[in-house]
Amino acid sequence: MGNKQQIPYKECRISDVKRLSVAGAGLAGCEAAWQAAKRGIYVDLYEMKPVKRSEAHKADTFAELVCSNSFKSMNIENASGLLKEEMRTMGSLILECADGAKVPAGGALAVDRERFSGLVTEKINSCANINVIVREVTEIPEDEAVIIATGPLTTGALADAVKSFTGKEQLHFFDAAAPLIEADSIDMSRAFRAARYGKGEGDYINCPMNREEYEKFHAALISAETAEVREFEAGMLFEGCMPVECMAQRGRDTIRYGPLKPVGLTDPLTGRRPYAVVQLRQDNAAASLYNMVGFQTHLKWNEQKRVFRMIPGLGNAEFARYGVMHRNTYINSPELLDCTYKLKDKGEQPVYFAGQITGVEGYIESAASGLVAGINAARLLKGKTAAVFPLYTAIGALAGYISSPGLVGFQPMNINFGIIGIPPGLRDTCSKNRLSKTERAEYALNTIRKTAAEV
């Protein structure tokens, strides 16, 4: 816990002390609290666990990863890799802890989820400027500087308060998590270790399929029984986290060109590229659990066991966690927020949102929004001008996407080069090829280095 004496919540006013309330100790909330605290702001960080949990949370620690353990690519020619490098440069708490808890994953950054969450919790609790308060936030306090980072599972009284406070209807979609498999139950006489194109050192376990095995699996997958979805929620699936059975319904080869693509892999038993491949990624430092890559699912648990055991190498698989599906909620950010994640048109009260509730999608994207909100809340409380990240940086592109007024059909978005702008100096020479992404990334990082020194 923080060492500063607690000022009673209702007695603290912006004019009295440079103090900020942050609701939610997920990735975005912890990052926001950390960034503000580093800049001399006293932060009250509210977290309802362990007194109360959402349907997806199990641990008592902060920044719990409830879906994949992967933070995606580390290559700066990939937008996700660029975003991570920008955040490292800005002194991100989440990236520092992720780097300290990483497990082998080829060219990706994957973490031991328990160690990662433990490191974040330790850092937050040891920060003298952060006071952790175990309490569910059910309303947006008046006359307080506040960051709402309660995540995509925000429900109940706070969801109603957000709706009332913003005057806008919330949007929602479904998100799905993949199963975890016990490593010693995988048949390595059928599976093999390798990363695509030889990257890494056999960081993935690969379960190869021939054409007959794939077709039988596909038929079973599309006919398997799913958990019940309420009628008014049907069809609200986010493309970036689509359940594997929904992808399979789109066509016989859809998943074979998606999560089961065999490119860059050779089956040592045949010496040939398989017809399809299911990849398993290490999920903890002990390498005792593996995540089924791309297998977010809404199948009933008994059906998951039946169908997924048809995959070669998983005939006797033991599931440490079955795939689950839950409703995610996000606000209509383009109408509500500016590029610092601050709520517009609410007078002098500084109210920010951060994390997936804003419509950014993904672990690192959520933390990036918290970073921007935390920095800017601190600057506002200190009477400084806002820190606006250029649209040609990954951090700025995300902030620009969620705050673009008039955006029709707003949907959650992962970082990608499609929303990252072209730097002014490269506009005339930049083309859509691999080299141009390197140039754009280097330009963005140079800008972020300057920004880090200034804010």
Q: What does this protein look like?
A:
The chain is globular. It is an alpha/beta fold and 455 residues long. Mean pLDDT is 87; it is low at 1-16 and 230-234. The chain folds into 2 domains: 9-170 and 331-454, FAD/NAD(P)-binding domain (3-Layer(bba) Sandwich); 177-327, Elongation Factor Tu (Ef-tu), domain 3, CATH 2.40.30. β4 (102-103) and β5 form a beta hairpin. It has 12 helices and 16 strands. It has helices at 27-38, 79-89, 93-100, 113-126, 156-166, 211-223, 244-249, 301-308, 333-336, 363-381, 394-402, 434-454, and strands at residues 19-23, 42-47, 70-73, 102-103, 108-111, 130-134, 146-148, 171-177, 180-182, 192-193, 204-209, 276-282, 289-292, 319-321, 324-330, 351-353.
Topology of helices and strands:
Elements: E1 19-23, H1 27-38, E2 42-47, E3 70-73, H2 79-89, H3 93-100, E4 102-103, E5 108-111, H4 113-126, E6 130-134, E7 146-148, H5 156-166, E8 171-177, E9 180-182, E10 192-193, E11 204-209, H6 211-223, H7 244-249, E12 276-282, E13 289-292, H8 301-308, E14 319-321, E15 324-330, H9 333-336, E16 351-353, H10 363-381, H11 394-402, H12 434-454
Parallel strand pairs: 1-2, 1-7, 2-6, 7-16
Antiparallel strand pairs: 3-5, 4-5, 8-15, 9-13, 9-14, 10-11, 11-12, 12-13
Helix pairs in contact: 1-10, 2-10, 2-12, 3-4
Q: What global shape is seen?
A: globular
Structural class: alpha/beta
**CATH classification, class level of the largest domain:** Alpha Beta
CATH topology name of the largest domain, in short, is FAD/NAD(P)-binding domain
Mean pLDDT: 87
Q: Give start-end ranges of low-pLDDT stretches.
A: 1-16, 230-234
Instruction: Give the SSE order as H and E letters.
Output: EHEEHHEEHEEHEEEEHHEEHEEHEHHH
How are the strands of the largest sheet arranged? 10-11-12-13-9-14
* CATH architecture type of the largest domain: 3-Layer(bba) Sandwich
Please, what is the CATH homologous superfamily of the largest domain?
FAD/NAD(P)-binding domain
Helix % is 25-40%
The largest pleated sheet is described as:
6 strands, antiparallel
Q: Based on DSSP secondary structure assignment, what is the total number of beta strands?
A: 16
Distance between the termini: 26 Å
Radius of gyration: 22 Å
How many individual domains?
2
